[in-house]
């Protein structure tokens, strides 16, 4: 399935396509969905990014380090705003939850916050992490809160939920991604989004230890893939 | 962040001795340690805004540095400290960064809550 087919199966055909992205950390949007979001914003979509935390417990502090535990939240907030501008996201919401603590958060508060956004925005598509297959406990807990909340809606009111997964066993457990988006035409927005996260993007595990060639950028970042969450 | 000058840290520790302070203490391998290298064990701990008072404190080692603070009821210890935020003159913001710049340990003291 490609993204156009997802749009066709989403239940809200009126006006602009509305997409709600829910991730816990600044920079999740860059690596998971920046190209997809930029592509559909270019086609007229309205995007809200609900970022649960400011990533204030992150370990990357720049090379050499220019941030610390006290200054990191403010730095990452500005990076997040820059990233959203690079992608073209119209509505950024910083929800103020504490980094690393999503799995321990009051579920009623968390789910209620997500439900309020769903009722207000009525998105056709929600993008989040696949619970259980997204490595970081905050990723799993965020995806779990999103699918728990949407699962309580009547089936006919549920948006399409597209999940990102990258744990080492994810394909064995949930198969191959069923939605692939070619974002090569939007790589300049995506790379600008990634590089907005100046305190983070130098991390070798994210971008490697050297400047990538255009071909390497295309092969590494040119395709974004998602699993449509199946509510049983 | 600037590399630690131990004599300077010692004078900052002395200034805060005997006062009621808020402590942030943290040690972390990072949440991705095991995902990136299955031989590694992901482990982290932090405590934020614990209220403490120490009667004696010092910095030691040749870098990375250790700090030990003797409190009224016990001890506070941090090993692996490399950097200080020199711009923050009210609070003592110490951290240990690895060769990739990543934070491994943080020891922070403040008269007001973080």
UniProtKB/TrEMBL annotation, chain A:
GO molecular function: hydrolase activity, acting on carbon-nitrogen (but not peptide) bonds, in linear amides
SUPFAM superfamilies xref list: LmbE-like (SSF102588)
PANTHER family per the UniProt record, alphabetical: N-ACETYL-ALPHA-D-GLUCOSAMINYL L-MALATE DEACETYLASE 2-RELATED, N-ACETYLGLUCOSAMINYL-PHOSPHATIDYLINOSITOL DE-N-ACETYLASE-RELATED
Protein name (database record): Bacillithiol biosynthesis deacetylase BshB2
Species of origin: Paenibacillus typhae
Lineage: Bacteria, Bacillati, Bacillota, Bacilli, Bacillales
From TrEMBL, chain B:
Highest taxon above the source species: Bacteria
InterPro entries reported in the protein's UniProt record: DUF1806, YojF_sf
Name of the protein in its database record: DUF1806 domain-containing protein
SUPFAM superfamilies membership: Hypothetical protein YojF
